[in-house]
Structures are given as structure tokens and as C-alpha cells.
Amino acid sequence: RPHHRAILRMLLDRAEKAGLSPPTQAFEDFTLDGRKITMDCQKQSTGKIKGRARFVIPQGKMVEFNYKLPMVTAPSASKLVSHWHMMRRVPVGMIDFVTLVKVWRQQETEQARIMFLNAVGRDLVLKVSQLKFFASEAVHSCPAILSQVLAILSTSVDGMNRNMLISMLRRKRKSGAKAMRRYGAQSFEAAAIDDPEASHIPLNLLQQPRPELITKSCRLRVLGQLAPLVQLNLDAMTGRYELSLDSPAGYNAADRIWLAGRWEASVATERKVVDTTQAGHHLGFRNVLLNETLLAITPSWQVPGDGLTGHGVLEFDYATPLSRPKPQHCKPLESWQVNRLVSFLEGWQGTDITLEARLQALQAVVHRFYVTASQLRQLVWVMPSQGWRIEVFVTVFPRCVDFGAPTAALINDAILFWAKDGVRKAQRQIAHRLGPTLLLDALNIHVKNKHRHEMHWRDSRICVNFLMRLHSREDASNLEASWEGRETKKRRSMDRGGKLITKVSEKFKPEDQGRMAEVIDVKEQAMLRWIQAVQSKMPKAGKQQEGTFELSSDFAVPTDGVLLTTYSLDESKKPRLEKRKQLAHDLLGWVTTQMPDDPVAAQAQT
């Protein structure tokens, strides 16, 4: 089929453009008529255009393969996404844009125009001026689908932001519109002189129609549809996302976040950052739900869809794995700069800017500065309620240079996150969004000693591993554990060596109770042995190195249910702070293990 061969040539050209030599390296598991072979394609001159060659594709064959381009090196996530956006799509020049406009004007029905927009938004790269031209065309010819024109074609513009969108939606004066058309005609005439191939294009084809006023309801509808895209900051992605894959803007935002998240994971792996993520592989995606179904994220996962839209709603939290800036490499804000930022968040001089708009402005610029733990406290303290304080903390936390003991103290501060329902709710929300490893205050683990671990998550098992290692190195410590299973009611481990009583849930049929009881009994026995290992003393450092401490293969580590732990220390004994700091640095990724003098915090508590 000619169109299949054309697609294969396009994939080879993209691989060659990406720097692969030979470009066939992008084709994995290549099969020809069911036989796995090594792909080999050569370029030959076509003879139609001088100096142009194309790949020769065999005819009459059936090929199957996996196409994968390498990750591009870039200084930031936004630069990477911009490069990837330009590489995976076809740019539209002047001559091609004239052809595109002709095809657009040939469409007579709204359904045909929507199909045209979907094709352009999926595969082409438009400039802002070209998008504005299509918007003015839609105002003149089909105002009913103007919002769809902007929503679909905005995904094809590289670096789409709020300023570009507002410039397209603002009202234009007639005099300014006339001057714009006159300037465009002069510019086109000059371009035609330099480019003889453009001389055959009719001049009136690229003249914009008389601009009309875009209604307020249309502007609000477009702003709402493109909000996930224009509010996205790829250099500071930590936050909560709920994206509708049915809309082009939501799908495009999800695709860009996934690509930027994989880039951050590769950078964290290269820097050998301690991996405390929920999914592993330094992927910062947490609590991923697709149509209310929990997903297990892996590096090979992709956003489901056709490149423009998908189906359903994708919800997730993102916590960047690069949230450990070192104080010696990052300079925090000056005191006067923090005071001005605090004044902005607080709403100085009776400003009419809403609190939500102030938070969006903070999210848009948070990647440009660093703060200390005391400055982070100041920013959080000015917010009026616990919910807004949590939002500011989650947003600014990755830019804190005191990651470790100071930030753990902030999260466990009952005064900072005080509310009627208590500080525990704030701690649970922060742990849910950023990870439970942040709640572990290693220096005061025996004071705030009760923790809840969902064992099906990797970061919760890291917390349990930390408690077990610490328990094996502090002689006067006690570690109590209880487990809540998935199929049975709550059960607890009594004294060491005691028995666990199994109660089968009533949701199982009577004929299945015997088999389920047998399965649960095996799980209970394995869980009992594991809890006994938790409560007992593990091998000392002399027998096994601390950096390679692992459970014995005789014990089954639970991967489901909820484990409740209580870590206590005899009152007559002092904690071994150096051991705690070392474990926190190795397992939790602490950068700062000391608690600096914080006069601001002391004043706030007073």
C-alpha cells in the first residue's frame, strides 16, 4: 500500500532527523512476513528533484515493529518538550500554509472542518501568526466552532502560554486591523521578491478578513478548555492534576507531563539521587487513576490515545525526584525578596486579585528561585486556611535547600498546619501527594512514633525498611507492628510467637470459604513470621554492612494490606542521632541532617 510505505519513510526521516545513524536503530523487534530480521533501508535519488533522495521500501511485504526514538539531552524539561514537539511533527512553511488555507476553505460542513482541524492538530506545527489567521477565518466563516478551532490548533503551537492565548482573544480596533493587513501585504510582497516560488500565490489569499468581536462567553469557554495547557509549568510540575483526555488540551498536557517526567527520572538516575518514589525508576507520578482505576506506572507506559485525544479522565499527583537542591549550589532568596513575595500572597493594599490567581502566579515562577526552611514557613504561614497552606507547601517544597530534618519538622509542626480536625489530616494529605518518606522525622521518630504504611506502595516499604534498620541499631528501642489484611478483618500480632485468628469475610460464598480460609491461613503464617522479624533484633553492623542490609529470604515481605507501626525508646536512653542521620541520608535522601537556628519559627510559635 503506497500510504503505508509513505508512513514508513516518514518514520525513517524522523529517526534520521533525531540523529540516529543508521536510522533503522529506532525500529525494534522488526519482522518481515513474520520472520525477525535486521532492518536495512538505503536512500536513493528519485530523479524528480535534484539533490533529493528517499528511502527505498520493498513492495509486497508485511512488516511489524516497535518504533522508539532515544531521549534527547536538554538543559531543562521545557526545552526537551519543545525540541520533541518540533521533532515529532511536521513544520508548516509559507508555501505549505497557502495549500493548507486552500484546503480549509474548501470544507463546507462543520463535520468536515472538525476532521481537518483534528488532522492538523495531530501532525503539524503551526506558528502563532498562522493560528491567529485560522482564528480570524473561523470568526468570519464559522463562528459556531471558533472555540474548537482554538482548542484544537493551540496544541500544535510550540510553547503555547497564556499571553499568546490572550493576544488571540483580545478585541482589535479597526484602525489597528487595517494597519496589520497593510503591514502583512507589504511583508508578503518583500518575501515574494526573495522567493521566486512564492510569486504565483494570489496576494488576497493571505489577507485576513475583517476582524469581528469575539464574545465574552466564547473567550471564557476557550480559556477554560485550554487551562490545563496554558497553566502548565514544565520546570515546576509538582502538584495535583486532573486531565480530561477527551479534550486536545488535556491530552496534550498529559503527554507533555509524561515526557518531562521521564526526563527528570533520567536526570535523577544520572545524578544517583536516592529513589523514594512510589512507582520506582525515579518516576515522580503518584496515585495515578485512569477512569477511577488505579494504574501501576512503569517507564514503558504511555498516555492512551491517538496523539490528539484519548478517552476518560487521568488523575495523578506529581512529586519531582529532583527536589533535593544542595545549599552550596543554590542561592536562596534575600530577606527583602521573601517579604515582597509574602506581601503578594497575603494580598497587599486590598488587592482584588483572587487567592487562586495568586497561587497560579506563584506556580508559574516558582522554578526561578530557592528558599530556606524558615522562608518556606513564612510563605506557608500567611495563607488563611489549612488547605491553602498545603497547596503553597507542595508548590514551594521542591525549591527548599534544607531538605531533610528542617522540612520534616515543618510537616510535623502542629502550629503551622493547625485546624479543627487536627494536624494529622494535613500530614496525610502531604504524604499522599509528596510521599510518606517526608513524614519520617528521623531525629524525633521515637516522639511522633505512630505510622501507617500501605504496603502495596514502594515508598511505604522504604519507610518500614528504615524503621527496621534503625531498630536493629538502637539497643533500647521497641518496634511494634500490626497488620490489616485485604480479604479479612483487622488482625493484630499479639505476643511474640502468638497465633493470629483468621476471620473470613462474609462476601465469599459458603462453598469458597474452605479454600479461602486455607489461602488466608498461609498468608497469616507468612505475615506472622515477618512481624516477628520486625519486632526482633536484626543483625548488627559487624555481621552485615549497613548499606546492604536486607531481610532474610526466609521471611515473606508483605506487598498488600496496611501495616501499623509504633517506634518507642526507653526513657532512660538517648537516641543514637548519628546513626539516625546516616540512615536518613542513605534511605530517605536527606541533604540537611542538622536543625539550624530558626528565629522566625520560634517567633511564629510564640
Detail the topology: elements first, then pairings:
Blueprint: H1 2-17, E1 27-32, E2 35-36, E3 43-45, E4 53-55, E5 63-67, H2 77-88, E6 90-91, H3 94-106, H4 110-123, E7 124-125, H5 128-141, H6 146-153, H7 162-169, H8 174-194, H9 216-225, H10 227-230, E8 239-244, H11 248-271, E9 285-290, E10 293-294, E11 313-318, H12 335-346, H13 355-365, H14 373-381, H15 386-396, H16 405-411, H17 423-434, E12 450-454, H18 458-473, E13 477-484, H19 510-535, E14 562-569, H20 577-587, H21 599-605
Parallel strand pairs: 6-7
Antiparallel strand pairs: 1-2, 1-5, 3-4, 8-11, 9-10, 9-11, 12-14, 13-14
Helix pairs in contact: 2-11, 4-6, 5-6, 6-9, 14-15, 15-17, 18-20
Give a written overview of the molecule.
The chain has 606 residues and is an alpha+beta fold. Helices cover 44% and strands 11% of the residues. The chain contains 21 helices and 14 strands. Helix 6 runs parallel beside helix 9 (216-225). The chain is globular and about 85 Å long.
Could you give a short description of this structure?
The protein is of the alpha+beta class and 606 residues long. It is 44% helix and 11% strand. The protein has helices at 2-17, 77-88, 94-106, 110-123, 128-141, 146-153, 162-169, 174-194, 216-225, 227-230, 248-271, 335-346, 355-365, 373-381, 386-396, 405-411, 423-434, 458-473, 510-535, 577-587, 599-605; strands spanning 27-32, 35-36, 43-45, 53-55, 63-67, 90-91, 124-125, 239-244, 285-290, 293-294, 313-318, 450-454, 477-484, 562-569.
